[in-house]
Automatic annotation (TrEMBL):
Organism: Hibiscus syriacus
Name of the featured protein: O-fucosyltransferase family protein isoform 1
InterPro entries cross-referenced by the UniProt entry: Expansin/allergen_DPBB_dom, RlpA-like_DPBB, RlpA-like_sf
Record keywords: Signal
CDD domains, A to Z: DPBB_EG45-like (cd22269)
Length: 130
């Protein structure tokens, strides 16, 4: 009986630890159309996922273009005037950051930004995982 209790306790602790594992922390802002041409697929409209949930990434994630097509799950953590909506979204990398220097880790399409944050601020803190 004690062994069963111990096994349940250990399993619960492992499950709790697994839940506490988080992704990377960064910043996000949004950029405006026109979104094409992109560094990944040029002028192809098919590169954009349904709902226009796509991003351009900064040098740290770009990886000489290997980031093209990668998918990230992200959520808003904080920002000025409490902008976060309580949800996560899945986004697709379609471009390299169009601004130099890039103002954030990830530049979201306007639709992607609106999905996770109220437009009270232009820059938010995010958690993201591939």
């Amino acid at each position: 009986m004690a062994a069963l209790f111990l096994a349940i306790l250990v399993t619960a602790m492992i499950s709790k630890e697994a839940y506490l594992v988080h992704g990377d922390i960064g910043t996000a802002s949004f950029y405006n159309p026109p979104y094409i041409p992109t560094k990944c697929d040029g002028i192809s409209e098919e590169q954009f996922p349904p709902g226009n949930l796509f991003v351009a990434v900064s040098e740290g994630l770009w990886d000489n273009g290997a980031a093209c097509g990668r998918r990230y799950r992200l959520r808003c953590l904080s920002g000025p005037k409490r902008p976060c909506k309580q949800r996560t979204i899945d986004v697709k990398v379609v471009d390299f950051c169009p601004l130099t220097p890039c103002p954030s880790t990830i530049m979201l399409s306007r639709d992607a930004f609106a999905a996770i944050a109220h437009k009270r601020g232009r820059k938010i803190n995010i958690e993201y995982i591939q």
